[in-house]
Amino acid sequence: MWESIQDMCLHVVFILFTILIYQVFFNEREEKQKNIQSKFFLFMLIILVFTMSQPVLYSDIYKYDFKAVAIILSFLYGGKRVGFAAFLALLITGYFTDQRLLVLAGNYTVFCLLLLPITSLFHRYRLRGKIIVISLFYMSIPITRGISLQIKGDDRQTIFELSSSLIVLATLIVIIYLIENMNEQIKMKQELIRAEKLNVVSQLAASVAHEIRNPMTSVRGFMQLMQKENLTTEQQMYIRISIEELDRAQEIINQYLALAKPQTEQYEVVDLSSVIQQSIDVMRSYAILNSIHITQQVESSLIIHGLKLEIQQVLINVIKNAVEAIKSEGEIWITAAKQSADFISIQIKDNGVGMTDAQIKKLGSPYYSTKEKGTGLGLTVCHQIVKQMGGQIVIESELNKGTCFTIHLPTVK
Q1: Which of 106, 128, 130 minimizes the C-alpha distance to 119?
Q2: How far is CA 237 from CA 131, 223, 227, in A?
Q3: Angle, nearest 10°, between helix axes 2-22 and 33-53?
Q4: Domain range for 207
Q5: Quick one: which of 10, 157, 362, 403 has the most CB atoms within 10 Å?
Q6: What totals of helices (H) and strands (E) does the chain contain, helices first?
Q7: Residue 123 phi/psi, 5° resolution?
Q8: In sequence order, what are the residues at sequence separation of 6 or more whose Cβ sits closer than 8 angstroms to the Cβ of residue 72?
Q9: CATH number, domain at 378?
Q10: Closest CA to 65 of 57, 74, 76, 75
Q11: Whether 202 and 142 share a structural domain
């Protein structure tokens, strides 16, 4: 038995080495999601082929490998497509490695179907919760096998089954820890780059915004005086357009100043349910003008710490973006509920044009906008406001199907 366990440890080293290569050399790169998934699948395929072609031999009738690890990781970090692609690769590899194909297909069909809800549950938790979820899921398999072997009276094989399963589980936990830890570091690095960009924008805004605003105010005043003169219709139109463009420039400057302005006001207890309702009421007429219907489902008595006007600014900005993404004759769904003891979630979902993965990654960065005349500063300010409150904005979107903004805010404890 000890020789078999030593062989299993060699498998563990190979799998960990393969995962580390992927994380260090591939996962940190800025690439399209499809490219990331294809590379992740390639590494899972390497693990599958190796572990199934070099199984640990316990007896003439009993072999053990780590294919369950590759399948679980494929679903957890690759998604459904990578998961089922790994399942297909498992069957093909099983065919060429003299495994009982029908038994293999039956067992892992059930295994993969169970992984679908487990994957959804897995991503709701932080690291500790993720490890607990996957441990409970995986250990249910060897426990049922162990009970079956005990009924047959095979004590020796039961001991090996449980010990080998513990090695596999430990490997799975280490891999999840490595992936989650490195993903967190990547996020921190991206957040640092984002903070540096915001710092540059803030310094620029603070140094030049006031100097630009003063001459613009003077120019606008003279334009308004000229409107009172006896001018042709065409000249009146030119002046009106000039004033509108000056006002738009003024709004951009205000957004720059919002980035540069340090947060000095004290947070207060805010009735979030009331603020959401007020924001919807403000934007409802704008939505109706574009033939857009707003559906709302907001829980009562949602309380947070923050600044009422800034929260309202975030909500109005996101709802306005949703209306503009739909263009006309669409629908916006707004829901707000307490998701846990710590956080309240607000979802603003539309059925508009949607966005690609590349657009979602850039969204919220200064100077980037999907709108023709947008500056990207509106969402940049929104991200900053929510972050200062200890919250987070999560964006999910699919091209030509719509976008969902989820705003997580800490609740009053």
Answers
A1: 130
A2: 65, 12, 10
A3: 160
A4: 193-260
A5: 403
A6: 12, 9
A7: -80, -5
A8: 115, 134, 138, 172
A9: 3.30.565.10
A10: 57
A11: no
pLDDT tens digits in sequence order for the chain, 413 residues long: 566 667 778 888 899 898 888 887 776 555 555 566 788 889 999 999 998 888 877 665 567 788 889 999 999 998 899 999 999 999 998 888 766 788 888 888 988 999 999 998 888 888 889 999 999 888 887 777 777 767 777 666 677 777 778 888 888 999 999 888 888 887 777 777 766 666 666 666 666 666 677 788 888 888 888 888 888 888 888 888 888 888 877 776 766 666 655 555 678 888 999 999 988 988 888 888 888 899 999 998 888 888 888 888 889 889 988 888 887 778 999 999 988 778 899 999 998 888 887 788 777 665 556 665 555 667 877 888 888 888 888 888 888 888 999 999 988 76
Please tell me whether residue 361 adopts helix, strand or coil conformation: helix
281 and 197 fall within a common domain: no
**350 lies in the same domain as 250:** no
One domain for residues 14 and 153: yes
For residue 225, the number of C-alpha atoms closer than 13 Å in the C-beta half-sphere is: 6
Element holding 305 (H helix, E strand): strand 303-306
The SS3 assignment for 275 reads helix
Question: Are 197 and 155 a contacting pair, CB within 8 Å?
Answer: no
3-state secondary structure of 278: helix
Of all helices (H) and strands (E), which one includes residue 337? Answer: strand 331-338
The dihedrals phi and psi of 372, each to the nearest 5 degrees, come to: -60, -40
How far from each other are the two terminal CA atoms of the chain, in whole angstroms? 53
Listing DSSP states for 282-299 in one string gives HHHHHHHHTT-EEEEEE-
